[in-house]
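User: Could you write out the 3D structure of this protein bound to beta-alanine? I've included everything you need below.
Assistant: Certainly. Input first, then the structure.
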Amino acid sequence: MEIVESIELLQQRMMSARAAGKTIAFVPTMGFLHAGHCSLLEEGRRRGDLLVLSIFVNPTQFGQGEDFEDYPRDLQKDCTLAQEAGVDLIFAPSAVAMYPHGYATEVNVAGITAGLCGASRPSHFRGVCTVVTKLFNIVQPHVAVFGTKDFQQLAVVKRMTRDLNLPIEIIGMPIYREADGLALSSRNVYLDPEQRQQALALSQGITLAQELVKQGQTDAATVIAAVSCHLGAQSQVRSDYVAICHQSTLEPQQQIDGDSVLLVAALVGRTRLIDNGYLMDLS
Ligand SMILES: Nc1ncnc2c1ncn2[C@@H]1O[C@H](COP(=O)(O)OP(=O)(O)OP(=O)(O)O)[C@@H](O)[C@H]1O
Ligand SMILES: CC(C)(CO)[C@@H](O)C(=O)[O-]
Ligand code: BAL
């Protein structure tokens, strides 16, 4: 496994791989890898001859007062996990290499970025789309793998890839959870034991909603109220949003159907967590 910091060197490696007819699979991350990331890497390993992992805590997707400085980092452990997952190449650029003095270009996807996380983090998706576009241009993958834990991010990246005619297949992988239901997230490390326990309200809220729908409830407002009430019962949990949306457009829905997804974001103490789940099992 090779670790590359230089954009130019990475581009040379990718050009050689393409010239040799290799399929390039790419998993973009901000590092501090956990089993959720490893599930993306496993899928990437299955789909590509060459598996590239990027580790870059992207400053432009963090708003004022957010946790950019404190974001957990452990490159050494990431390298060990990446090697075990069969990564061929880690791309870990510096912020100054990605955004040199005079950098002036942003990528903005309208509409689908306005609500949900975009409402409370207004510049977030502009930062994500800008860095993902740059990473796509540098790595030039055939396939890129993302997690559905960041459901809106995945929808935005799919929209952007279509809109910009990028010849990249975007794959979404299921949410990897702890045994008790908590979605794995690098930010879980911020939680103290009591907050860790109360954070279960997010996944429990999703299960509660799924049960209500199974019992025949199709009114979105009723389900949202039940989930909000469950979150509100925890002293350290403050709901940011509970929404029921169409899985592709992310438009809010009043009636629940086979395309409905429940999306939740909440502050647990000072840690912002997100989770989601489909509401109807059509299988
Ligand atoms: N539990 C999970 N299951 C599956 N994929 C995940 C999970 N957590 C993160 N991912 C995916 O890993 C990729 C990189 O995400 P990132 O590095 O931000 O990790 P994270 O754990 O989501 O961190 P954060 O705490 O910042 O939300 C994204 O595509 C994200 O959706
Ligand atoms: C896609 C991404 C790597 C862009 O910085 C980040 O938003 C993430 O880790 O989900
Ligand atoms: N996985 C999303 C990264 C962020 O919250 O900035």
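The first strand starts at residue 2 and ends at 4.
User: Perfect, thank you.
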